[in-house]
Amino acid sequence: MIGRGYLPIILVTLLIAATPLVISSNSFFNFTVLVLIIALAAQGWNLLGGIGGQTSFGHSMFFGIGAYTASMLQTHLGVNAWLSLVAAIAAGALAGLIVGFLSFRAGLRGSYFALVTLAFAELLRVLANASELTGGAAGLLLKLDPGFANMQFSSRPTFMLLALAFVFASLVITQKIVNSRFGAHLVAVRENEDAAKALGVDVLTVKLKAISLSGAMTAAAGVLYVQYFLYIDAGIAFGIWISIEALLAPMVGGRGMVLGPLIGAFTLHGLGEITKSFAGRVPGIDLIVFAIVLIVVIAFASSGILGLLKKLADRFSSKEGA
Amino acid sequence: MLKVENATMRFGGLIAVNNASLDVREGSITGLIGPNGAGKTTLFAIIAGFLKPTEGAISLYGKDITTEQPHRRAISGIARTFQIVQPFAGLNVHENITVGAYLRHAKPSDAVEKAREVARQVGLEKDLEKSAASLTVAGRKRLELARALATEPKILLLDEVLAGLNPSEIRDIIPVIRTIRNSGVTILMIEHVMQAVMNLCEHVYVLAQGKMIAEGTPTVVCNDQAVIEAYLGKGSAERIARQSAENTGGPNA
Amino acid sequence: MFSPTIIIEAMINGLLTGAIYALVALGLTLVYGVLHIINFAHGATLAAAMFAVWGLNAAFGIDTYWTIPIVTPAFFVLGYVVQRFVIGPAAHGDDGNILLITLGISILIENALLAGFGSDTRSIPSDFSFAIVEAGPFLLSSARLVGAAGSLVVAILFWLLMSRTDTGKAIRAVAREKLGANLVGINVGHIYAITFGLGCAALAVAASLLMPTFYVNPRIGGAFVNIAFTVVVLGGMGSIPGAMAGGLIIGMVESLSGLLLGESLGQIGIFIIFILVLLLRPTGLFGAKA
Ligand SMILES: Nc1ncnc2c1ncn2[C@@H]1O[C@H](COP(=O)(O)OP(=O)(O)OP(=O)(O)O)[C@@H](O)[C@H]1O
Ligand SMILES: [Mg+2]
């Protein structure tokens, strides 16, 4: 028997995993890999921002820490790619713990928390852009050397399956959390901190756990990014673009819902591709669409696509019952 | 079991609680009454750890808890309700109560079951799937009560759970409170509805302008000069006494 | 290491730039003080205003300073409309939503500028841009002096507006107690939109004052939004005098850290101040303790 909420996760994963059987276009796999990387980063955001209600504008800090940790360990010290992955995830968790400890202990919430996360990300961007270790403005290149040991795959479908495995793991972890006491505490903190405290919830610890898990997930996405593109620089790693992607996907798909980030990332980038195919090479046109979708979602469907579907399903089933 | 010793709470220049002491006997229903702005809610916040008193000490079963965090006190067995209800608005009733139940039940199925049991106890079993935001005032008060109760407290602090309810709703909930006590939970309740205080409480403390001005059984306290004056203004005790003397002396009032 | 003249000159230049930062931050802090929201689109709006100034100059040859009477009312109206008919209704009264909507607006503006004008950097070259005033041993840019003076004038006008006019009184009433203001017959939605419009109008003036010495591209807002937030946080969210003082301080910090650390690391001073103030004293240096 499969536990509560896992069936949709398994179905969606199988569906994506089956695409290489029917599709062979490289641009499809490029698209899907990018979407999966974003979905993974966004799942990190969702854990903290969607389920825990602590909106971050600076998740690029975790993405960048993951990406740079993995590439610096490999290029400077010759560490194995998989070990670097583990170290990068740990670094993301640690960064989350530090930033969380500083800001949550200072009592930052809402807009203040959003701004301070943004400032941390920007600070790291400036530092990475200037430091020798991170390759400065030129960035870091990973040596092209395909093979399982280096976590590099010349076949795109294979890399897609790797990214999918990460996303699957993140979905299962998130679902486990949602079903658990920790998940209930996290939601309680989002809904009303005082009430949560009165019921014995250790608010600070709950937030710290959430932000370190969140940082770990988004750092893993950063690692996937460098392993795929074999290049990173400060603007990519710590840029506002990934902070926004990580936030938009859950907002559009359904914040606080396990499949929200994945559905949102596919929808947004699907829309982006469609727009590009109509509007041609107008720069920024996809982001214009994203922004409009974000505003429309907040105005008319604050629980996103999944929320809308759920509402429709409820209406349908209540009609049937009547 | 619960002792407040010489608690004082200052907000800038304002002294909300002034050297107040209180002692709740285990297994009792104890009342805390007093006019609006007397400092009752502030005293609850001090007991539950939401405010750090400027001076004074709180102890539970003789153990000093003055510096403990609110969630630690909940674990020690203190549960409070909020005068201004604080539901988890985005969750349904069952999920709201389950958060409380998780305090003593780490396993989700146990917590969910415990929450259902508590809902039955306070009369919310029909509303389990309803969104907390859609409840009536009476429903929200019951939800406050249920959530606190789900933490399986040793002592339950009820802050005006009857305020805003109509007489029939009050009549419905009074036996619920009594049953809770009979199940072994000590209760300290702030209440303005005197009918309920007289009906439920064995011992009553009276707070006025931050000071504890009287204590005793409900009847004793209600006839206390200082208490009547605190509620109705200076000189009123005398006036009332005179009036009732005249009334008994005169023909028909 | 550096001669005192260089350091003092850097400080004066910092103050002059800081005055314009203060003007940019003025609208942000006003909107926060009244609506209690953080307008994330503030930087992008500034970029749009700078493009408007640049466009008016490029298309009609209007001198930068003479664009003020055109762009200021235009951006007031724009701000009014956006708050009244987009942000207000879409947010359903939730602060978190407002932050996200203004983020959406900021992405929208930035990329609309990118789609319309491309990513090229543009400026308005004129002889005045390079004109210099000698003050004792120091060489100061005339355009920056005009910019600082202009900012000061706008700040004074704002102060007069807030303290002397009925609209100003209504704004202050709404800022303090929106329910009460509503009860005495003030249309809160209207006042919100006016405040938002004023914030945008201040940006339009800032854009006109900046253009002679600055350049514009679609991403320029990001740089300014960081600075403006830092100024506002430093001065105390919602405090207009705080924003003025904060602007001057940040201008100076930026100029000095640029001098000491170089261009690329120079911005670090600002982020560090921002983070430290938020963590240690979120009410700002001049704000009352919450
Ligand atoms: N956080 C606070 N800061 C400043 N003053 C406060 C604060 N909380 C309460 N007060 C003031 O302390 C006094 C006591 O308030 P409290 O809410 O404890 O009274 P109460 O007895 O519960 O009244 P009521 O019967 O109306 O609920 C009031 O004057 C109130 O304005
Ligand atoms: Mg009270």
Structural account:
The complex is a heterotrimer of chains A (322), B (253) and C (290). With 322 residues, chain A is an all-alpha fold. Chain A has a single domain (6-321), classed as ABC transporter involved in vitamin B12 uptake, BtuC (Orthogonal Bundle), CATH 1.10.3470. In chain A, 76% of the residues lie in helices and 1% in strands. Chain A is globular and about 55 Å long. In chain A, 55% of the residues are buried. The longest helix of chain B has 16 residues, at 167-182. Chain B has helices spanning 40-48, 70-76, 93-101, 108-122, 137-150, 167-182, 194-200, 218-222, 225-232, 236-249, and strands spanning 2-11, 14-24, 29-33, 55-60, 63-64, 78-80, 155-159, 186-190, 203-208, 211-216. Chain B starts with a strand and ends with a helix. In chain B, helix 4 (108-122) crosses helix 5. In chain B, the strands form two sheets. Chain B has a six-stranded mixed beta sheet, with helices on both faces. In chain B, strands 2-1-4-5 form a four-stranded antiparallel beta sheet, with helices on one face. Chain B has two domains: 1-77 and 155-171 and 184-222, Rossmann fold; 82-152, no CATH class. Chain C has one domain (4-118, 127-280): ABC transporter involved in vitamin B12 uptake, BtuC (Orthogonal Bundle), CATH 1.10.3470. In chain C, the strands form two sheets. In chain C, strands 1-4 form a two-stranded antiparallel sheet. In chain C, strands 2-3 form a two-stranded antiparallel sheet. Chain C is mainly α and 290 residues long. Chains in contact: A-B, A-C. The interface between A and C is large, with 41 and 43 residues. Residues 40-41, 83 of chain B line the site of magnesium ion (MG).
The total beta strand count of chain B reads: 10
Q: Which structural category do the helix and sheet elements of chain B fall into?
A: alpha/beta
Total tally of structural domains of chain B? 2
Using the coordinates shown, work out and report the CATH topology of the largest domain in chain B: Rossmann fold
The main pleated sheet of chain B reads as:
6 strands, mixed
Q: Write down the Rg of chain B.
A: 19 Å
Helix share of residues of chain A? over 70%
Detail the poorly predicted runs of chain B: none
**What characteristic shape of chain B results from the CA principal axes?**
globular
